[in-house]
Amino acid sequence: MIEIQIPAGRAVLSGNLTIPDNAVGLVLFAHGSGSSRHSPRNQFVARTLNRAGLGTLLFDLLTPEEEALDIYTREHRFNISLLAERLVHATKWVRQQEETRDLPIGYFGSSTGGAAALVAAAELPQEVGAVVSRGGRPDLAGDALPKVQAPILLIVGGNDDIVIELNETARDRMRCEVKLEIIPGATHLFEEPGALEQAAKLASDWFVNHIGVDGARC
Fold first, then answer.
1. How far is it, in rounded angstroms, from Cα 111 to Cα 117?
2. What pLDDT, on a 0 to 100 scale, did the predictor assign at position 27?
3. pLDDT computed for residue 32 by the predictor
4. Which of 209, 96, 95 is nearest to 153 (CA)?
5. Cα 81 to chain center, whole Å?
6. pLDDT at 70
7. With contact defined as beta carbons under 8 Å apart, do 90 and 61 qualify?
């Protein structure tokens, strides 16, 4: 794992990049509101992906200054267009780096990061090969939903009733391959024994089977 800095307009975003030997793809993580690249749940998922031969980039969608302000104003955490823009910047950055420029790309989003991942995927249809949302809010992606061409996996906890409904509604607006997986007994943060492991395995399989695969996009 190496620490990197990603230029994103006037902002500079800190990230952690891990590329396993003979990597078959690279997954960029979009964390949820109030979280960061240090999210223990996303780090757990990232390690699962690394073992499957997938590189991972976990990075902060906000600068430290923006994060400090957001604690009080909450003005950034639901600014999906800003978060998606940061993800687009990160995608363009990895395309400029020698060790990552040729790797097929996927997005993994949690909570509001799920919406940001879908908006960014709609903006970069030729770059993004698959999207996975864990406990995400795809409904916040709005008009971007039918524009996403990458295959999408929506993972939701079985006891996260409201988010299940939001994901079902969003799924019905999507035009390409989309699958909703519900983890029985899991709540929003997948804190129950085995729940996060199930989600990570589903995500890993989805990326391995879709990114870089000819004909996967619609």
1. 10
2. 98
3. 74
4. 209
5. 15
6. 67
7. no
Task: Identify the pLDDT of residue 180.
Answer: 98
| This prediction's pTM | 0.94
Say which CATH number the domain at 145 has. 3.40.50.1820
Is residue 215 assigned to a domain? no
3-state helix, strand, coil in the chain (%, to 5): 40, 25, 35
Quick one: 126 exposed, middle or buried, by C-beta within 10 A (0-12, 13-18, 19+)? Answer: exposed
Which residue do the tokens 């690249």 mark?
A: 37
Please tell me what DSSP assigns to residue 139: G
Taking 50 as the pLDDT cut, the residues of the chain under it are none
**DSSP label at 23?**
-
In a domain, 218, yes or no: no
What is the phi/psi pair of residue 216, to 5°? -70, -35
pLDDT at 40: 83
Rounding to the nearest 10 degrees, give the CA dihedral for residues 192, 14, 108, 106.
Answer: -150
Q: Number of structural domains, the chain?
A: 1
Secondary structure of residue 194 in the 3-state scheme: coil
Residues spanned by the domain of 59 = 2-210
Q: Is residue 133 part of a domain?
A: yes
CA distance 211 to 25: 7
Does a structural domain hold residue 88?
A: yes
The total number of residues shown for the chain amounts to: 218
